[in-house]
Automatic annotation (TrEMBL):
<dbReference type="InterPro" id="IPR050256">
    <property type="entry name" value="Glycosyltransferase_2"/>
</dbReference>
<dbReference type="GO" id="GO:0016757">
    <property type="term" value="F:glycosyltransferase activity"/>
</dbReference>
<protein>
    <submittedName>
        <fullName>GalNAc(5)-diNAcBac-PP-undecaprenol beta-1,3-glucosyltransferase</fullName>
        <ecNumber>2.4.1.293</ecNumber>
    </submittedName>
</protein>
<dbReference type="InterPro" id="IPR029044">
    <property type="entry name" value="Nucleotide-diphossugar_trans"/>
</dbReference>
<keyword id="KW-0328">Glycosyltransferase</keyword>
<dbReference type="InterPro" id="IPR001173">
    <property type="entry name" value="Glyco_trans_2-like"/>
</dbReference>
<feature type="domain" description="Glycosyltransferase 2-like">
    <location>
        <begin position="4"/>
        <end position="171"/>
    </location>
</feature>
<dbReference type="Pfam" id="PF00535">
    <property type="entry name" value="Glycos_transf_2"/>
</dbReference>
<keyword id="KW-0808">Transferase</keyword>
């Protein structure tokens, strides 16, 4: 499967070359994964665009998409997703906060059969460096609330570093978020549709140059609106999701009935027998109950 790496970049001239070099080294030179890297120049005012253009002359796998105003992290991600040609999409930051080795780990998990892979900085095996204390406290509070609200084990849903099958993104889209809340829109839209999702530990470190564009107060309202939207959407689409799952199971039963191995057909037959026995026990219990006099009667 072909891997598409989407990198939103706003004023990242000091980071982008090193980011691309490390990705190329780990993804291609060490693992020979067929891939493309899509850098989305998000209305940068520095030399990000010219730096990437120069890099592209020696690296065919790198593509540049330039966004005009208005900018925004979510708009950049949406533009990058529209440009992918691969089967697996990984969203990676240009500031070197995400490890290229984790990109490969996510890709391998998708190849194992998962639909999505969520990177977590807060499970066993993960590592975090230079995370501002205030943002860390806010992150843990917000993600705990989301985890409880959606009754899920995933504990870092606001993190942008995730991998998706392209078909999943197409099924869940189109996306609307223009800012950092797109990280929640992407993950929650897949979560409420019951896709097969894996969570893996990742390494994360604070940026080495420049400043973060995330503003906590500004994003609080957007995160809240996104969470509430998907909480109610989960209720609205529940019947549709169940209908799709039942149709999928029916197709599987039909397929097993025609070309499955005898072992699989035997399993289905045993399941049917067990269902009939359970029904017989229910009927027998009902008959016995009906035959007994009710309490207080003669």
């Amino acid at each position: 499967m072909k891997l598409s790496i989407v990198i939103p970049a706003h004023n990242e001239q000091q980071n982008i070359v090193r980011c691309l070099d490390e990705l190329h080294s780990v993804v291609w030179e060490q693992n020979l994964i067929p891939h493309e890297i899509i850098v989305v120049n998000d209305n940068s005012s520095d030399e990000t665009e010219s730096v990437v253009q120069s890099y592209m002359r020696q690296h065919d796998q790198v593509r540049l998409v330039t966004r005009p105003a208005p900018g925004g992290f979510g708009r950049a991600i949406r533009t990058g997703l529209d440009a992918v040609t691969g089967d697996v999409v990984v969203i990676c930051m240009a500031d070197l906060s995400d490890s290229p080795a984790d990109v490969v780990a996510c890709y391998r998990k998708i190849c194992d059969g998962y639909d999505c892979v969520f990177g977590s900085r807060f499970i066993e095996g993960s590592s975090v460096e230079n995370y501002p204390r205030v943002k860390l406290v806010v992150n843990r509070f917000v993600n705990t609330c989301i985890r409880l609200l959606f009754r899920t084990k995933f504990n870092d849903l606001t993190n942008a570093f995730k991998a998706y099958r392209t078909s999943v993104l197409q099924d869940c889209g189109p996306y609307k978020s223009s800012h950092f809340n797109i990280t929640l829109e992407l993950s929650l839209s897949a979560l409420i549709r019951n896709y097969r999702i894996a969570q893996i530990p990742i390494s994360w470190q604070g940026r080495t140059w420049g400043s973060s564009n995330l503003r906590l107060r500004e994003m609080g309202r957007r995160y809240l609106c996104t969470v509430l939207m998907f909480f109610f959407q989960r209720i609205l689409i529940r019947d549709d999701v169940m209908a799709e799952q039942m149709a999928s199971q029916q197709r599987r039963r039909e397929r097993l009935g025609t070309d499955a191995s005898p072992l699989y057909r035997l399993d289905d037959a045993l399941a049917a027998v067990n269902e009939e026995l359970a029904a017989d026990r229910t009927v027998s219990a009902a008959v016995v109950t009906a035959a007994e006099p009710a309490a207080g009667t003669i």
